[in-house]
Amino acid sequence: MTMSTAEPSAPSPSPALSASAGCPAAMPRTRGRSRLLAGTALLLLAGGCGMSTPPAAAPPAAVSSPAPVPSTRTLEPTPAPAPAPALTVAQARRIHEQYRRQLARARAADGAGLQHAEAGLALELSRAQERLRRLRGQPPAPPARVVSTRMIIPRLPSGQPRWFAAEVRYADRDDVVHLIFAESAEGEQVGGWRVVAGSATPADQVLPRLATTGQGEAQAVPAHATGLPVSPSALARAHAASLSSADSDARARRLIAPGPYTSQAAAAVRAERRALAGRWRLRITSRPWGPIYALRTADGGALVWYALREQQIFTAVDSGAPPLEFGRAQAATLAGGRAFSQQAHLISAGWFCAVLPPAGDQRARIVGDWYSALKVNGA
């Protein structure tokens, strides 16, 4: 059959108490009964120090020297960490070039070393694609020749991890590829940079012009940004709802335009359910996964990248159901020709690129993806 793949902290010091010169100014703050006793001792010590001579009517009393009271230093506020220096275009190009060298070495070594070039779901997708290639008996392919690149470096709030996008066009391909690089403390990339996300947008999909600052920087959009028809994070949830419901979720239909990743994917699911002829049930669960990257467009909208993970569960209605075989290429390869008699699971995941219009009546368009089947199992 054909598958659609779509601990509590220590108490802070109490405020300094006024006393004559040479007396302790403060005591550490404590709790409960200990706090009361410590406060009484402090008052007695402060009273004795405050008298320059004893009263005339009272003979001097022999008293033992009081135990020394620890002084309290004034705590200086911890300075905020300095923001990371802005990345230059030349640095971004070197990071991209080193990524391509790492990728070429990893492909020549059957995927060994990919973790030095990629991370997160991007690494998971590349490893899945390497596995599919080996299962098919195909030789490793070198990275495609680059025709042009554009480095898109956003201005980011202080303290936010740095990232940038490389827009790449390759020879013998008419699509536009975006690679999202993020900085990591690990890895062998320059400064710990790795590819963490990406997408390929077909030539028939129009990409909007990006907004820039006076210094030529792109403008990052927060995941929960307002002022748009829907925030980037809500868009990811709506797309997940569309895939889970075969495009029958009303809110998702209001927010996302029809297309290959919504209505057309749903049509394929409905056709597949008809082919199951009531002998197998298909349940789809899709959910957002990982961080979201977004850039402001010149018209006030946003170009957004988000990831989804999906599980398709096929369950036989009864013991007389015919065996289930996967017909779609990736699922069939992962299944290795195996037929399932009770239940089958297909796990997939991917990154999507979407265009969010400025606030108004227009709907979001999903224009590209990087998607793969990851695993097939069952009984």
UniProtKB/TrEMBL annotation:
Coiled coil listed as a keyword:
yes
Domain DUF8094 residues, every copy? 83-370
Q: Which InterPro entries match?
A: DUF8094
Superkingdom of source: Bacteria
Q: What does the UniProt keyword field contain?
A: Coiled coil
Which Pfam families does this chain map to?
A: DUF8094 (PF26366)
Region (Disordered) residue spans: 1-28, 55-84
Question: Which residues are in coiled coils?
Answer: 89-138
Q: What is this protein called?
A: DUF8094 domain-containing protein
Natural source organism = Planobispora rosea
